Amino acid sequence: MSSTWLVLGASSAIARAFARAAAAQGADILLAARDLVDAEATAADIAIRTARRAEAVKFDALDEAAQDELVAWAREFAGSGTLNVFLAFGTMPDQAAIDADPSLVAPTVMANFTAAASLLHRLAPVLEAQGTGAVVALGSVAGDRGRLKNYVYGSAKAGLHAYLQGLRARLVRKGVHVVTLKPGFVDTAMTWGLPGLFLVAPPEAVARAALDAAAKKRDVVYAPAFWWGIMTIIRHIPERIFKKLNI
Amino acid sequence: MSVRWKKMALTGWGRGPAADVAAARPERAADATAAVKKAREEGAAALARGAGRSYGDAAQLAGGRAILTDRLDRILAFDPATASVECEAGVTFRALLDAFLPRGFVPPVSPGTAFVTVGGAVAADVHGKNHDRHGSFGDHVEWLDVLLADGRIVRTGPDTEPDLFRATLGGMGLTGIVLRVRLRLLPGSPVLQVRETRIRDLDAFFAAFEAARARATYSVGWIDALASGRSLGRGIFETAEFVPGPAAPARKPLRIPFDLPGFALSAPGVRAFNAVYWRRVPKAGREGLRGLDTFFYPLDRLADWHRLYGRRGFYQFQSVVPDGAALRAVREMLETVASAGNASFLAVLKTLGGEGRGLLSFPMRGVTLALDIPRAAGAVELMARLERISREAGGRIYLAKDAAMSAATFAATYPGLPAFEAALARFDPQGRFASDQSRRLQIGRRAA
Ligand SMILES: Cc1cc2nc3c(=O)[nH]c(=O)nc-3n(C[C@H](O)[C@H](O)[C@H](O)COP(=O)(O)OP(=O)(O)OC[C@H]3O[C@@H](n4cnc5c(N)ncnc54)[C@H](O)[C@@H]3O)c2cc1C
Ligand SMILES: NC(=O)c1ccc[n+]([C@@H]2O[C@H](COP(=O)([O-])OP(=O)(O)OC[C@H]3O[C@@H](n4cnc5c(N)ncnc54)[C@H](OP(=O)(O)O)[C@@H]3O)[C@@H](O)[C@H]2O)c1
User: Fold this and answer.
1) What is the CATH number of the domain that holds A60?
2) In which element (H, E) is residue B84 found?
3) B96: closest CA among B183, B217, B207?
4) With a 6 A CB cut-off, is B127 part of the ligand 1 pocket?
5) How far, in Å, CA of B448 to CA of B441, rounded?
6) Atom 8 in ligand 2: which residue has the minimum CA distance?
7) CA distance B80 to chain A (A)
8) Are B392 and B319 spatial neighbours (Cβ–Cβ below 8 Å)?
9) Using an 8 Å Cβ cutoff, are A33 and A58 in contact?
10) Which pLDDT score is estimated for B448?
11) Do B77 and A192 touch (CB under 8 A)?
């Protein structure tokens, strides 16, 4: 039976790599992005390289009114096949910029958490009805602990992590699997030129980890895997010390 | 759209002196436009950079803004009836092969590595082993989208904005950023029938090329650049044709994990390597099937092979000399290199069929010799001597390889330069695009 991935936030380099890799494995791809021209370019690329069906659709995560329509279109695109969801959209404004302009807090939380939760909540019944399929959503290691340098973004991702735990419990009862993917630093537009990065992974590696996690029905996956070790240490630093760290 | 620059040190494939740049890496055309605009606002010059496979200082700009194209990597359209492909400039030859070889098509012209981007192939108007038959890369380009200094994106082809087309093809990034390319592929297969012949000296090489020129689609000569005396110019001559056949199995790349120490490159070491390479082919020659990758991209299996030349890096000297003067000039070049004892691995000899469409395109009807010169003591003088031989024979040096040519030699040997500078005066009047190479060669600085 055919399988479709709905890729949300398709202009992300991670999303592009994921869509290509999923299509190479035989899936059809529906790319949802707010830059339709860009998503159409990726759709053409995938269709030519893999001969799979690939289409683009305009999508702004903050436009809640359009979410039902998107869900309906995704269901129709998948036809009688399985619909799967890869959720990649998010924004990471500089913490200093947010500190200087508190009006940036709400949109950051909206894009990374609220919009993701409300859209996944609309997709949930569709996924339950088909009784199979997978959701892979991009959390972040930043959501594992609130850090001085990145805590607005981090807290939105932490919220997303908790939401995904609940969604996982809900959907597993109907045969649908939910993966929380927590990348470390990935070489994308989001991190390009930022200071202090280390062990930066190529988007293709994260895409492979995502497909692998979905296939193996893993629940929470760090990508690359060694971030599990790093975050275990970071999570165990006592708060009275952690609060004084400049990270 | 906000543009974030990343500080980087860029060098060419020959690993000469690095240039510190601030780099943007657009993920789509709009990001590239924003980066060029931002560079303009900052009063800094900009330059596109593809895969960094040019050897010298063509793809770097000290103190400037680099626009890296590797994420502009999408194939946008394909028409099997005309074999025409539209793609973004950062698409590599490897990606084209992965997508189209299974459908029976190959890039019309291939440099010696598949890591090169389509944008880089346009900017250098690259040639392959089939120049006599198929010309250079630009001969197969239908149109280009070029992002100009003023932010406009102009579609240009042989008949639309032809001045911009002729300046961009072979123009080494100086007219702007190529964003999209429409080109035609040629029929091909994963397998070639290859004929290898042992060649005892340079006269025999020229005779072999002359005989093959009209018959063979692909031809190339590998010369033992350290052989001298009666063996000067000895080597192996290869001709090839595509034949139908199953794909050869892909082999995993080998890596060079560290810079080789200097002694590995001593003349005796390299001499031994070259001699073994020569004897590999039996005296009587041989003929057989070979995979596309091993014929076109023999070095791609050795990822990072440029580390073989150690930390100091190397020059590549490549010049083309018109037919009439070629035998003498190539002999003199090889004698010069052999007597300098500056160990060079194999040198490459090819024939070229005629001029390219670009104002600064490298090819002319003649013979081209390419050899590596390690950046050891005496290398600068050796490069200057080779440059003089080429110039006096009416030849020219390839910009994609060049790191050492003088501005005077460049101006004297590229007759399209005045027209090129006139085009720059029109499309980039403020000199917003530049490279370390264009500064060394003083391109655009003479009155147009
Ligand atoms: C092993 C090896 C074998 C080779 N064999 C051959 C050969 O057989 N024949 C041959 O012709 N060449 C050959 N080359 C040279 C190579 O093909 C050229 O240097 C080519 O330009 C490299 O492309 P690139 O993508 O790496 O570009 P770069 O090296 O990154 O850039 C080269 C030039 O192109 C410009 N440029 C790159 N992208 C763009 C763009 N999008 N828009 C505008 N300008 C751009 C840059 O500004 C620079 O001036 C070889 C190189 C190697 C390493
Ligand atoms: N890069 C890292 O190191 C890293 C680490 C951990 C987690 N992540 C997560 O990985 C995901 C992908 O990020 P990335 O690194 O690939 O960076 P990215 O290129 O910035 O991707 C984020 C994408 O989200 C889209 N987006 C933002 N707001 C949107 C909205 N309101 N509606 C629709 N789309 C919207 C953006 O669209 P536009 O392109 O149109 O702006 C962009 O394409 C994000 O969730 C990010 O938080 C990244």
Assistant:
1) 3.40.50.720
2) strand B84-88
3) B183
4) yes
5) 15
6) A140
7) 11
8) no
9) yes
10) 44
11) no
Please write the tens of the pLDDT for every residue from B410-446: 999 999 999 999 999 999 999 999 999 999 999 986 6
Of A13, A44, A48, the CB nearest to B71: A13
The closest ligand to the CA of A93 turns out to be 2
- Dump pLDDT digits (tens) for B80-132: 999 999 999 999 999 999 999 999 999 999 999 999 999 999 999 999 999 99
Regarding the beta carbon of B47 and ligand 1, being less than 6 Å apart is answered yes
Q: Classify residue A18: in a domain, yes or no.
A: yes
**pLDDT tens, residue by residue, B252-290:** 666 666 666 555 566 677 777 777 777 888 888 899 999
Question: Which amino acid is it at B34?
Answer: A
CA B298/CA B112 separation, integer angstroms: 7
Bridge partners of A180?
Answer: A137, A220
- Domain of A185, in residue numbers: 3-242
Q: Is the CB of B117 under 6 A from ligand 1?
A: yes
Contact A192 B6 (CB under 8 A): yes
* Residues paired with A137 in a beta bridge: A87, A180
Instruction: Establish if A247 belongs to a structural domain.
Output: no
Cα atoms found within 13 Å of the Cα of residue A182, Cβ hemisphere only: 26
Chain centre to alpha carbon of residue A176 = 17
Contact call for A44 and B75, based on CB within 8 A: yes
For residues B373 and B383, what is the distance between their CA atoms, to the nearest angstrom?
Answer: 8
Residue A174 within a domain = yes
How many domains does chain A contain in total?
1
The answer to whether residues B223 and B184 touch, using CB atoms and an 8 Å cutoff, is: no
Residue A61 lies in a domain: yes
- CA A235 vs CA A107, A144, A147, A163, A229: distances in Å: 27, 7, 11, 20, 10
